[in-house]
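Thread: "does anyone have the structure for this chain?"

Original post by V.I.:
We have the sequence but no experimental structure in hand. Need at least a predicted one for the grant figures.
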Amino acid sequence: MNNKIKQFCKDHNLTENQFYGKEEFSGYLYLRSLTSIPEGFNPTVGGYLYLGSLTSIPEGFNPTVGGNLYLESGLSAETKPYGNPIIKFQNGKYIKADGMFTEVLDKKGNVYTVRNLNSEKVFYLATDGKNTHAHGDTIEQAKTDLRFKKIADKLKSAPIKANTMINVQHYRIVTGACESGCRQWLEQNKITATEIKASDLIILLEKTNAYGAEKFKSLLTA
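Reply from O.Q.:
Generated one for you, tokens below.
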């Protein structure tokens, strides 16, 4: 292990095996100040991986991430962030929509074929071309979710009381989250309950930096 890698591991409390992905780094790995990926760095992270200042994604970088991979401020986006647009990176090779960062395998009309960086599983993203999008395991599921989101727009501003029991459908209506994203969040956080009290749910949402947390919080009333 060269001196640069040794220093990198020391700075970020990593072992050599964790640096190369041979050993899992449990929990969240915050690398917000990192602007470039060190050669050979391909970690296995049990929780979330934050890389908010990267300026490029090198070929061969394929981390295994149990939570979400966050690539935000550093990468140049082809679309100016306003509302909730799809943000494109590296000439559309990667996109971020509804908080999910994925690699684009194909695009036909307003439907993308995508996959997560740490997975070979293919799924789909349907969009209205503006600010509403939905992921799904099939094209039809993605399109159905997209229609659901469009219809539910008018219900998004209704106040929510702290003791209101919230299910997945209610959360999706309020935040615009898709079924696939909600299911993934529930599985990652080992939640099996079909309903959660609003005051308890917001604590979990904020703790995991979940998609829609701020919108949900803004509607909570005493």
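V.I.: this helps a lot. The longest helix spans residues 139-152.
O.Q.: and Residues 156-221 form one domain.
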